[in-house]
Amino acid sequence: MYMELIFLGTGTSVGIPMIGCHCPVCSSDNPRNVRRRTSLYVKTDEVALVIDTPPDFRQQMLDFRIERLDAVVFTHAHADHIFGFDDIRRFNTLNGKVIPAYGDAETLADVRRVFNYIGNCPSPQGLYRPLVDFVEVSGSFQVGDICLTPLDVQHGRKMTGYLMEAGALRVGYVPDCHAMPAATVKQLVGVDVMILDALRYRPHPTHMSVEESLALLEQIAPRIAYLIHLCHDVDHDVLECALPAGVRISYDGLRVGLEAGAEGVVWTEEEAS
User: Nearest Cα to 92, choosing from 110, 72, 109, 70?
Assistant: First the structure.
């Protein structure tokens, strides 16, 4: 079993660099300090899905040469996680099929309100609308060979993270979070990869700080962890040098490969081309 993760975006809601900001990170010439809004592409032998469609979605697809998309999975309906949704219509043409979009009831209600023209009926002649089947989820569900289990976390209000399992591979994804219930932590203990919110060094009312994220990762004890949803307080190289063993800072274009074999899970990391 093989799974590939591509970090399409790793930044906070305003992206990095921020408009009108000339701080050291926003002015940096380090490409790993350039962060689009957060999204993750997940691919196995059977299926390719994306978690969230941020405003940068179209450019992310072009930059990382992604030409296949079988499903969309939403964590929540904040603008920085859904406003690129219209651009999945190109994948309807490429793949020749309706694309399912998964999320909890509240999230899908908000997505459908914002994109009230999107559905699974062909567009009238002259219009070009996405073709989508909205699929409400409240428990584990299957997309190809990936089983996704919704995870309850707090992000001001309730938000959905996901545990993704494919064969022996287990990946946790919680990009926006300021508190995680003990039951959710228990579901994630020992995952192969944990991708977790770490907005900045200072506390924040709806996101985890770096310190809070590291403390939570001690409880989850993943094989490898990546910090995500980073603001301009965080310089990539500075934080990377300060992190404990087994914890990395993510960056746009990071490609992580996981393969389960007789001797366990093999993990590889490279930059997407």
Answer: 70
pLDDT tens digit sequence for 118-155: 987 776 655 588 999 999 998 999 999 999 999 988 77
Residue 193: count other Cβ atoms within 10 Å of its Cβ.
21
Looking at this protein, which amino acid is placed at residue 51?
A: I
Q: What does R_g of the chain's alpha carbons equal in angstroms? A: 18
Domain assignments of the chain as residue spans, ordered by start: 2-259
pLDDT digits (tens, 9 = 90+) for 147-177: 999 998 877 667 789 999 999 999 999 998 8
Give strand ranges (E) for the chain: 2-9, 39-44, 48-51, 71-73, 99-103, 132-136, 141-143, 146-155, 157-166, 169-174, 193-197, 224-228, 247-249, 254-261, 264-271
Which CATH fold would you assign to the domain 2-259? Answer: Metallo-beta-lactamase; Chain A (3.60.15)
DSSP string, 137-178: -SS-EEETTEEEEEEEEEESEEEEEEEEEETTEEEEEE-S-S
Sheet of 224-228: strand order equals 141-143, 146-155, 157-166, 169-174, 193-197, 224-228, 247-249
CB 17 within 8 A of CB 26: yes
Alpha-carbon distance 169 to 149, whole Å? 13
